[in-house]
Amino acid sequence: EQSYAQILADLKTAQSVYKSEFFAYPYGHYADHAVDAVRDAGFEAAFSTVERNAVPGDEIFLIPRYTVLSPMKDSDYLKLIAKAD
Questions:
Q1: pLDDT band at residue 33 under the 50/70/90 scheme
Q2: Could you tell me if 7 and 37 are in contact, meaning their C-beta atoms sit under 8 angstroms apart?
């Protein structure tokens, strides 16, 4: 819900305190201008919460990932890994 300028300023402040190459969108929520702000803040890649395997050609600032919960039963984790194959 924040503007591009607000997001960019927040990300640059965070980067000045703790430099990171990667970003994960909070709760997987993002808008196009937020993706632009992440890129412009100097991150090299970012992760969404779209649950599927990453494939060549995916947008580097919207890399999909599977959700791992804590705590998570071993059987649920094994199902998640099997789904990722």
A1: very high
A2: yes
2-27 per-position pLDDT tens digit: 999 999 999 999 999 999 999 999 88
Token pair belonging to 20? 């990171």
Location of structure tokens 């937020």: 34
- Are the beta carbons of 43 and 22 closer than 8 angstroms? yes
Convert the pLDDT of each residue in 36-76 to its tens digit: 999 999 999 999 988 888 999 999 999 998 888 888 889 98
Contact residues for 77 (Cβ-Cβ < 8 A; gap 6+): 68
Residue with tokens 């993002």: 30
Contact status, residue 46 vs residue 32, Cβ threshold 8 Å? no
Instruction: Give how far Cα 26 sits from Cα of 30, 34, 50, 56, 65, Å.
Output: 8, 11, 13, 24, 13
